[in-house]
User: Fold this.
Amino acid sequence: MDMEHRRLGNSGLKVSVLSFGSWVTFGPQLDSGLAADCMAAAWDAGCNFFDNAEAYAGGESERLMGEAFRQNDWKRHEYVVSSKYYWGIHDTPNTKFTLNRKYLLDAIPASLERMGLEYLDLVYCHRADPDTPIEETVWAMNDAIDRGWALYWGTSEWNADEIRAAHEIAERHHLHKPVMEQPQYNMLTRRKVEKEYARLYDDIGLGLTTWSPLASGLLSGKYIDGIPEDSRAALQGYEWIKDMVSDEEANDKVRKLRDIAEELDATPAQLAIAWCAKNPNVSTVITGASKVDQVVENMRSIEVLSKLTDKTMERINDLF
Ligand code: NDP
Assistant:
């Protein structure tokens, strides 16, 4: 089945409904060869959007992704690539936990250098920063676009009021408006996407690039019988994920999800990813993987999308 492409909110940019991101994996789990192979597997399935962030593996993830673009020899007009800013990678007052003008206008070109690119398609404010006026951030993101470093900008895990405020400031000053938000969205985490942002889709044409469709792997069913040694939850430094995926109540639900998936001739991971894509307000579901096989399996979720009837959606709703 062919990959579907959706508009990123009310912008003209089209992104594949399934995309691929590098959090946790690029660096700690995947070296440059494997990272390029995973991206190629996604690409072969029709994926055109690759998500990254300055802070992933302290900048190494951007370097690996840039290398992978060259290794795979893709043309710049063929793919969409992002990065995100807030956490920072240098330990000084103006380079950490901030969205101030100095940081943003320094950090964005530094990403370009690490990736070896002339521009990014999407740049995000990776969290909200209560210490910087939203107006200062909006001007800085606008200026990054005006300088040719990026094409569109957006936010990640901002609340609805903050997104609306940024939009209104941009409108008032005729600046580039935020186009998309990147929230967590999966069967277990739904409130922001389904309730808090509900008005923003029509009011300002907000697009969504959602993250962690498998809740870090939990919804694949891999944690039903404990923590596999080669899994994310077994990695050092990710103990909070281990706690999250070990939750018994959640794993009971995943057992039942596995039964529904079986009826559809799908894996639980495919059902969980297709379920995210079923929401028409989602422009793209950013998937993650530590192995090429997982990428192949996950990209085939596109085949499950058409099998998600109202009845099946209702059963899943009842379950979660
Ligand atoms: P998922 O919730 O889908 O988790 C992906 C992980 O689950 C993989 O790395 C792999 O881990 C495991 N997995 C994937 N597919 C399968 C499968 N078919 N069967 C079994 N296990 C599987 O997504 P991520 O949490 O990785 O998030 C996706 C992307 O979203 C990130 O790469 C990033 O780009 C973005 N993101 C953005 C955030 C933000 O704040 N804006 C925050 C987090 C992510 P393993 O094999 O190691 O167990």
Summary: The chain is about 40% helix and 15% strand. The pocket of NDP is lined by residues 21-25, 29, 51, 156-157, 182, 211-217, 220, 222, 231-232, 269, 286-290, 294, 297-298 (CB under 6 Å). The chain has a mean pLDDT of 97.
